[in-house]
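From the pipeline queue, job 12 of 40. The input is one protein chain; the requested action is below.

Action: predict structure.
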Amino acid sequence: MSTLLAYSAYLPKHRLRLSEKDNRVAASFDEDSTTMAVEAASALLRDHDAAPEVLYFATTSPAYFDKTNASAIHAALGLPQAVFAADLAGSARSGFAAWRAARAAGGLAVVADVRTGRPGSGDERGGGDGAVAFLFGDEPEGIAEVLAEHSLSAELLDRWRQPGDAAGGQWEERFGLETYLPLLRQTAVEALKLAGLGEADHVVVVSPNSGVRKQAARVFPGATSSPIGHSGAADFALGLADVLDRAGVGETVLILSAADGCDAIVLRTTERLPAARQARSVAGQLADGVEVPYLTYLNWRGWLEREPPRRPEPDLPAAPPSSRTAAWKFSFTGSACGSCGFVHLPPQRGCKKCGSVDEMEPRRLASAQGTVATYTVDRLAFSPSPPLIEAVVDFDGGGRYTLEVADALPEELAVGTRVGLSFRRLFTAGGVHNYFWKARL
């Protein structure tokens, strides 16, 4: 079996306050499963030069049906065309399918979800949005060895959602609980037996069924779950990422997911883990949030219709120009003059500095940092999260461009502020999403 080489989790910045103690992790209006997947995967690949052989993307909230969402992730990551990219969508179990497929091929598995529940529902209270990326390979320097995988399938009408529905339905939790608990016990025993273990140092139990999550610690003492609540296809992955953030060398981890059956993974960490943990832990990201008003959140999710702007609708993003400028639009690739080194954003044929023509080399700046040269706060332009902030950014190593600033308050910005980039959805028109990059503090 391939080893786990690296992992990276992404949690959106916004928090919906549900009580004095509980805050829900909420994706912003310009985030979806595709953009969050790019955030997680790009953070992981920054430290890995070699492109993965394959990319599998799993979600229960795809931005598109009848179109491969993984292809947009592939483009945003700037991967070679030869890298196979495909979706695995529809249920929480698809996250395990992406893990297994990528592990078998020594590739990249990315799982992401935006969990939407009716206002006041258990899904709204107990859900969370996030993404995780896992990279597999045969290299000896992996951070964790996969000791065993085991699964049991079961047809169970525990929860469901018809295509086109904004939120799903679920049966009374006790019905699913009575079916899932025996499956969890059986799967755990078999997985540990395959791994040659009697027990594991860390146990993670996740499930769309809230009763399973409540009973997990009783059935498996010391077990944890996803740190943000049920997160769809990303559920088990966020639980695993949280454990990898704090597990010691040589410790074993048992992951159990009860969703339309039961899936288990058993891993053992290696001596490389402490030096190769993700830069920002799940707990650290969870603690770093900005509160979003409930009415604003409802508007983002489409449960509340606000007054539309008295302006023309944005134009439908057209396929031909998007295709011609795919490297710029998706992977923020500009051009650097081969004669003088001047960096152009967007890419140009002729150099603005020395005048040379057709001597450009592509320069991808998606992972670059920059400095705010100037900015403006527009309180009149329509935005689902006003005001709209735009900044002129001077990038390290060359290049200047004007970008919208994501997840920022006006008082947080100043001339000289350091920013990075974040892949976001600018708007949707005619059912077509217009993806591009925004600046982010």
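Job complete. The chain has twelve helices and 22 strands.
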